[in-house]
Amino acid sequence: MALSRPDKLLIGLGVAALLLLGKIFYIQILNGKYKRDASNNSMVYSTIYAPRGIIYDRNGKELVTNKVSYDIMVTPREVKAFDTLELSIVLDTTVEYIRGRMEYYHEYRSRIGYQTLTFLKRIPVESYMRFCECEYRFPGFSSIIRSDRNYPYDAGGNLLGYVSEVDQNFIDKHPGEYKSGDYAGKTGLESMREAELRGEKGYNIYLRDARNKIQTSYKDGEYDIPAVPGKDVITTIDAELQSYGQLLMKGKTGSVVAIEPGTGEILAMVSSPGISVDQLADIGKYYNQLVRDKNKPMFNRTVMASYPPGSVFKLINGLIGLQEGVLKPEYEYPCNKGYVYSGSRKLGCHAHASPLNLWDAIATSCNGYFCYVLRNILQNSRYGSIQEAFGVWRDYVLSFGFGRKLGSDFPSELGGNIPTADYYDKIYGKRGWKFPTIVSLSIGQGEIGATPLQIANLAATVANRGYYYIPHLVKDSKEIQIDSVYKTRQYTMVDSSYFEIAVKGMYMAVNGGGKAGGTALVGRVDGLDICGKTGTAQNPHGKDNSVFICFAPKDDPKIAIAAYVENAGFGATYACPVASLMVEKYLTGQITRPDMEERIKNTVTTRQ
Amino acid sequence: MIGSANSSVERSLRNAIDWWLVAAYLILIVVGWMNIYASIHTPDTVSAFDWASRSGKQTVWILTALVLSSVILFAVKPKIWEMISVPAYGVVLFLLVAVIFMGAEVKGSRSWFQFGAISFQPAEISKITTSLLLSAIMSKASFKMSRMRDFLIVAATIALPMLVIVAESETGSALVYVGFAFVLYTQGMTGWVLAFFGLVILLFILTLVASPLVAIIVLTVIVLLYYFLAIRGTRKRSLFRRNERLISLAAFVAGLMLIFSTDFVFNNVLQDHQRKRIEVLLGLKEDPSGVGYNVRQSMIAIGSGGLFGKGYLNGTQTTYGFVPEQSTDFIFCTVGEEWGFLGCLGVIFLYVFLIYRIIRDAQECREKFTQIYGYCVASIFFMHLFINIGMTIGLMPVIGIPLPMVSYGGSSLWSFTIMLFIFIALYRQEKKYF
To answer: Fewest C-beta in 10 Å: which of A216, A234, A423, B2?
Structure first.
């Protein structure tokens, strides 16, 4: 059927109408861009920042609180021509600074779009009040009151972590959570509990007209959202002990980690040199300086530094030997200034009485003795090859929390290193290595790497006679429940009964009473029954590292500590006094050895 | 007996009015008034009938328009429209020229007469007088579209007021005259003229957006396609084949010339603001604060409406003045924002219904004058509908012409009322005699 011409026009009319409706459907239903643009046009979101949660120590002392600070914000798109000189006087800044910022905004205008950016941070309250009086003369500029971090205690910058304005990279990594101008915890506790501490921003929505005049509250505030304050965090840290640890470690490079063995709660976590709380409070100013410092104050050694543990590792080898049945505490082995192996080679030891049993070997830290111990473990006839025996040994070591991440709640924890049989196979070939090849593992040297946190955890494990709780920094509180994994005992593969032997050896190391004398007698405090083990870890980069672990009291231990001081020599020289003083401080609240305290405080071993 | 004969005539008179058209017209007027009120409404607005406000003034325009429509329907003999078509055309053409010298300048164009508080735009009326004259000429029994002399007379009738209006810088109104091509098409003008217009626009856009090369390729494909389709239909007669070959060749050459002159026309013939509007429409340049601002804001307002809209008087974009010219040319934004897609659908449906109804009525007319006039009215409504709404949603360049019956303004409301009711009156007369 042929269509008449008017009919064809009617078809054209239908097509044209569909074209219009299609485009309308697209912009109204399919494309969300216009709705967003409409909100950007007409709605002004006035952000209400939530006060960040407060961080408490285990006794309710405030470690981190808030103080009010004033920031000047700018929305470059809304800025009109203004008197730069007047603004510079009001804000107590320079005309050059203002011009520089404006040029920057102009250069990046397409990327900035309608965003609001921070113009000046932490201005004094007088400037803030001056600005409020004449804000109307500077369209596009606004002020916000923000709560800033305040640090009543010097509890250590690495532990607490800093809070700073989020950058674009950070915003991209947390889609939808942050906007330019927001602050977030970047390291330490602030970062680890960011989700709870930050609270939720709120906002008031206002409608504005095309002339940027605020007209009314949007729908009578129906959609306004009040800010939800951040949750408070109660940490396991003992503020006094933490501060005292920092004091003692001043001028030294290393770490101190103290754990309550009965709970796995970390009492102190000192990384030195570290960031002071003054630097934390104004991290923007100090950041570059801290990053450039060759002593790496930003580097949290307690969880990120992997050291050879040294002689404290002998405890583990002894315990494994006992469990495997290849060692009895009564076994005596000779040591003539070392252990001779492969015919003529010798792993040296200091001069002491010989032969010794296991208790004395622990107390006096005999190298030779523990070479025999590891030899017995690896050459056990029960296992067909050294690879198999080594695998068993490694499983034991891992059960003590070495060679893997402990799983603490602290960010950026490292796992350290315990080598595998495969690793030696690759280097030496399947038949190319025997016990003498890896003899240094006997005394915690060689390919072993452990973090101070893992070493402290060893002290706690011995204190508990065979188990530990995963070390952690946050306590249960009304607002925050910690994971139940932190309340579960982690047993090692060694029976509890064997630990009494290690405990006795460690007691003798500090308090004496053995045939050969203790290596840590300097750490003895009357009535505290400290049990400890020294270590002097060889350091390829200079003087030996001074290591000491201990716990006290011997029965029902309340505190376990690992102190690791780099390039400081014998364990007994620095690490032992540091740990001993901290134990005394924690258990008695006072110091009976002011001379020792003075000496340690004033020693500087960090290379300047 | 006489009385009953009278009454039967009366009845047929009343029944012959196409009440559907009247109803669509009235609904559109109400829709218009509501949206004009919404567009000037702010939360502090007190009265809708404040006579100084636009909604108040529009109320006056509406009431007078209703009087006007009643007069046309009931007080004027429909036959008069054909009779006055020549003098009316002449008078309005004179006014169109006169306004260039005597008119007040409004937004860069001289097209308004100002008499105190009342202003009047001859271009609005000229659409009606041109339609009347066209209908009169083409309804003559001797008229033949295929005769060159007749075609030229018709073309001149359209072109004369159109050119004067262009001279007034009222390009938008002039563009509406292009719609008369549809009327000529119904009266036997070859459809190739419409196709030719379409091709010109297509090539123009392609040359600007893509490149002359793409335009040449498209042109070649279209011409070849046309040629092969055409010779397939006329295989037997070689004479026509040669004719088609000639047409194809001519079209190809003309297309090439157009493509190569596009840059010249675009850069040298078009005025600055026209060039910018086209650039923005085609996305060649972004200009969110300048020319692009209107379209951007308009699209934001409509786009933010969603399916159901924000609710009457609840639009944020239109209430707080983000869209310029809200109550006049951009009135459709208020519909889009507050009434949503469903509202847009409804309003567009009303227009489509109105135009459909006019064309259908015209088709069944036996009086040629009425029929052609109906096509004229339908074409003008269509051009306004498509250009105006197309502009608000970024489908057309910004061309300032009102949305019939809905946009604020007495001049336009009156002229659309007169135009439509002349048709309704003529149509009623049809029914009476046959």
So the answer is: B2
B340 and A16 Cβ atoms separated by less than 8 Å: no
Q: What single-letter amino acid sits at A395?
A: D
Closest by Cβ to B306, choosing from A5, A29, A210: A29
Distances (CA, A) of B191 to A122, B154, B383: 74, 16, 18
- Dihedral sign (CA B195, B196, B199, B201): negative
Omega of the bond leading into A594 within 30 degrees of 0 (cis)? no
Query: Radius of gyration (Cα) for chain A, nearest Å?
Result: 32
- Quickly list H helices, B265-339: 272-281, 291-303, 316-319, 331-334
Is residue A538 a contact partner of residue A367, using CB atoms and an 8 Å limit? no
Position B4 scores a pLDDT of: 43
DSSP track, A483-500: PGGGGS-EE-SS-HHHHH
Question: Please, what's the b/e burial string for B111-126 (b: 16 or more CB within 10 A of its CB; e: otherwise)?
Answer: bbbeeeeebbbbbbbb
Beta bridge partners of A533: A549
A178: phi then psi, degrees, rounded to nearest 5: -125, 155
C-alpha B348/C-alpha A584 separation (Å) is 87
Q: What average pLDDT does this structure show over B196-200?
A: 78
Contacts of B309 (CB under 8 A, 6+ apart): B315, B336, B337, B338, B339, B340, B341, B342, B343
Residue B46 pLDDT more than 60? no
Helix (H, G, I), strand (E, B) or coil at B389: helix
The single-letter code of the amino acid at B228 is F
- What is the per-residue pLDDT across B260-289, written as a single tens digit (0 to 9) for each? 777 777 777 777 777 777 776 666 665 555
**Omega prior to A273 cis, within 30 of 0:** yes
Site of tokens 């017995």: A376
Closest CA to B130 of B170, B167, B165, B79: B165
Residue A296 CA: distances (Å) to CA of A96, A273, A289, A343, B69: 34, 7, 10, 44, 90
The strand pairing partners of A65, in sequence order, are A150
Do A69 and A147 touch, CB atoms closer than 8 A?
Answer: yes
Q: Which of A375, A366, A397, A336 is nearest to A505 (CA)?
A: A366
- Token readout for B32 is 């218009």
Which DSSP state fits B407? Answer: S
Nearest to B186 among A9, A17, A42 (CB): A9
Chain B residues whose C-beta sits inside 8 Å of any chain A C-beta: 42-43, 182, 185-186, 191, 296-297, 299-307, 316-317, 320-322, 336-337, 340-341, 344-345, 348, 351-352, 355-356, 359, 362-363, 375, 378, 382, 386, 389-390, 393-395
d(CA A316, CA A461): 10
Kindly provide the residue ranges of all beta strands, DSSP E only, lying in A308-421, ordered along the sequence: 338-341, 345-348
Q: Give me the residues paired with residue A125 across strands.
A: none
For residues B11, B15, B17, B18, the Cα torsion angle rounded to the nearest 10 degrees is: 180
Q: How confident is the prediction for chain B on average, in pLDDT?
A: 82
Here the tokens at position A199 are: 């609270």
Among the partner residues B182, B306, B389, nearest to A20 by beta-carbon distance = B389
pLDDT (tens digit per residue) in A270-291:
998 888 888 888 887 888 888 8
The predicted complex's ipTM stands at 0.86
- Residues 6 or more apart whose CB falls under 8 angstroms from that of A28 comprise A34, B302, B303, B305, B306, B307, B336, B340, B341, B344
Q: Radius of gyration of chain B from Cα atoms?
A: 24
Do residues B413 and A38 make contact, with C-beta atoms less than 8 angstroms apart?
Answer: no
Nearest CA in chain A to B381: A13
Q: Which residues of chain A have pLDDT under 50?
A: 1
Residue B415 has pLDDT above 60, yes or no: yes
